Amino acid sequence: MPPAKLARYRAKRDFTRTAEPSGDAPAPASPRLRYVIQKHAASRLHYDLRLEAGGVFKSWAVTRGPSLDPADKRLAVEVEDHPLDYGDFEGTIPKGQYGGGTVQLWDRGYWAPENGDPVKALKQGDLKFVLEGEKLHGGWVLVRLRGREREKRNNWLLIKHRDDAARPHDETDVLDADRSVASGRSLDQIAAGKGRAPKPFMRQAESRARAKADAVWRSNRGDAVEMPDFVPPQLAKLVERPPSGASWVHEVKFDGYRMQMRIEGGQARLRTRKGLDWTERFPEIAEAGRGLADAIIDGEIVALNHDGAPDFAALQAALSSKQTASLVFFVFDVLFAAGEDLRKAPLGARKARLAALLGALKGRAGERIRFVEHFKTGGDAVLRSACSMSLEGIVSKRVDKPYRGGRGDDWTKSKCRAGHEVVIVGWTTTNGAFRSLIVGVYRDGKLVHVGRVGTGFGRDKLERLLPALQAAETEQSPFVGPGAPKRAAGVHWTAPKLVAEIEYAGFTGDGNVRQASFKGLREDKPASDVGPERPAPMDQPLAEPAPKPAAKAARGSNVVMGVTISHPDKPLWPDDGEGEPITKLELARYLEAVGGWMMPHLKGRPCSIIRAPDGIGGERFFQRHAGKGTSSLLEVVTVSGDRQPYLQIDRVEGLAAVAQVAAVELHPWNCWPGEPDRPGRLVFDLDPAPDLGFDAVIDAAKAMKERLEALGLETFCKTTGGKGLHVVTPLARDARLDWPTAKAFAREVCARLAADAPDHFLINMAKARRGGKIFLDYLRNDRMSTAVAPLSPRGRPGATVSMPLTWTQVRKGLDPKRFTLRSVPALLGKSDAWDGYDDAARPLKDAIRKLGKG
């Protein structure tokens, strides 16, 4: 019996007169969703788009046909559902029958939704999807229009995404090709009954793919072979950008444990990428594998978060607690099956065989072991889509190549955020409390230092990490070569056997990781295998910059770094500069994205926040003290001279906690971390009069840089998020240095600069005297004074950010308004601003002595 969904379809047609399928004999199921587009010369020429969903074709009449130009928004009128076997229909519908006219199979192939369940997305009126057809490729979106009064049909817009497959309308018109993809016939030939019959797709697509794969397997088969116990896995080379071209396909990169499943005689064993047997650690997945025929399959075991995305920390927690029932084995390759060695077959054939193999899994087993789909569209578009969904990145593979163990050029990986495996060689403490990891990698067989990891340590992670560190503690440093840290108070060494996975912002000039954040321990890889990994450059650039996030950032989960963001759609900035609001959830995700960079400038310092619970246009609250109900993710510190405790952000998860209370600005003290009475940096705020342009501020920053560096101090620059600049100089810890001394030094530097150029600068903040001049504000260099944190947003129109800069960026034409909450995460990943900050601290006493001689 045909599905009830087809009642409208059947009621409109007399199947004794039309050759259209009735839907009584449904098309075979397919492991991938299919689509067709039929060119339909009825009373008016149009194109019928049909997407497989829920066992039928959801259908739209696209009045002018699809366009490859994203600027062309084509009207798509929703019509009744069609049976799946309609995807093979090409011919003439008799006059007098519904839709009478000629039908051509203009395009067909496979499609995949980009925003979750397609049926749900269609109900919500916003379906984003990718097409892999013979004529159409890349990303598209269907957006439902608001219905008008008395209008009976649902009208939608069909719009092409901006990606590699997009083309300007005046460059090419895809509709010019009047040829059937199934028969090669034109509309006129079909109407005249001439030419060959169309090749079937819906009824034979699966069997044709299977036959093609069988032909490849037979050519390589010979006698049945015995499956090995383990096959060294094929590995991907890290590249800056994904490759493109018809020979490449692209898969989601999973953030979990690479695993090989070997099924024989109804028993499944799981081995890590180094061949370790981990079957007992994943009993539910091993049990699910018992339902498969003899085979060796390749995949990745992951834990999924509330948004359905892989979460490495959740995987670690599941293993630690032995709560592994919800883990998923995503499989993407098959190496042996039914006595055949498939490694010589091309990837496309192997994946067809894998899809057929997994068809035997039903129910819970099918949920635990899932097939990994791939995309044939441009790699840059797939990567942007993966990044927009907060995934780790993508793996690109040559579809025509065999399976080869080891790392080669046939598989590449492109990441949304830089990640690395490192060897833990020690840890540091302050007053007995954990502070950071000391890490390294092996180069030419020698363990060399690559820096410290100071963020990403939530309470649950530390509970698992500290016992492992203490168990591996040793007296001797395992490092060799220059640059290794020395034994000092608070430094603890470990034997080099623990491997950590980290995220980081880049490398310093001497090869150390910048702004590294801890993700978890890796137990599937020996420390001796951990070496440096830098992305290889690709010849072709990305087609275009990543698109601006949608105004509604509440897509998917509202849980950020373990914190549930209430009222996630609440607009905090009603206008991002282009008319789009920025929500509370977007603020939390921004702080998550830049948190690894921010934390060294927040940790250990009391921090005031400016809250705007009703958005920046509403009432604001300045808060520096901890109150009732303060999140446990925030530290509460006591400062001498004040009975009330202060807020302090010492872990990256605390940034999500302040976002939850709508903190739109962060203003830490400038003290030495953990020592409020010790100056840790000087901040010179260059504040121009309203009648001055920004180029004057740039000149002032360079003049201040010259003064400070002449005194032996290192300088760094950042925008304020407003109309000024901050020049910052880090100070070496000095137990004898107090705040009055630091403030007096800062005032004297500013006073001398103002005295030398009185027409340009002044140190008196009276507005009456400021016309045409820059106020050199030294007043932030006091014990309880604050300065806006690097990368902190500002509660101002446009959602500007206090952006760290390199001195080469501080030049005429610099526009501080371009650094916004939406633009900065991508810019930060390409920047080396403030490299070397931690090593740039200089004693102020030497500068004071030089100033006294000047």
* Helical percentage: 10-25%
Shape: globular
Q: Uncertain segments of ≥5 residues (pLDDT<50)?
A: 205-223, 538-556
* Euclidean distance between termini CA atoms: 96 Å
Class by SSE composition: alpha+beta
Strand order of the largest sheet: 1-2-3-4-9-8-7-6
User: What's the gyration radius in Å?
Assistant: 31 Å
What profile does the largest beta sheet have?
A: 8 strands, antiparallel, barrel
Number of helices: 16
Number of strands: 44
Beta-strand level of the residues, as a percent range? Answer: 25-35%
Q: Could you report the average pLDDT, rounded to the nearest whole number?
A: 85
Give a brief outline of the structure.
The protein is an alpha+beta fold.
Draw up the topology in text.
Layout: H1 7-11, E1 34-41, E2 45-53, E3 56-62, E4 74-82, E5 91-93, E6 101-113, H2 118-124, E7 126-133, E8 137-144, E9 155-160, H3 187-191, H4 205-221, E10 234-238, E11 248-253, E12 257-264, E13 267-272, H5 283-289, E14 295-302, H6 312-321, E15 328-337, E16 340-341, H7 347-358, H8 363-368, E17 369-371, H9 379-388, E18 393-398, E19 406-415, E20 419-430, E21 433-443, E22 446-455, H10 459-471, E23 473-474, E24 491-503, E25 506-507, E26 513-514, E27 516-522, E28 559-560, E29 563-564, E30 571-573, E31 582-583, H11 584-598, E32 607-611, E33 621-623, E34 635-637, E35 646-648, H12 653-660, E36 663-668, E37 671-672, E38 675-679, E39 681-688, H13 694-710, E40 716-719, E41 725-730, H14 739-756, E42 761-762, E43 774-777, E44 804-805, H15 824-829, H16 844-853
Parallel strand pairs: 10-19, 15-17, 22-27, 42-43
Antiparallel strand pairs: 1-2, 1-6, 2-3, 3-4, 4-9, 5-6, 6-7, 7-8, 8-9, 11-18, 12-13, 12-14, 14-15, 15-16, 18-19, 20-21, 20-24, 21-22, 23-24, 24-27, 25-26, 28-29, 30-31, 32-33, 32-36, 34-35, 37-38, 39-41, 39-43, 40-41, 40-44
Helix pairs in contact: 4-7, 11-12
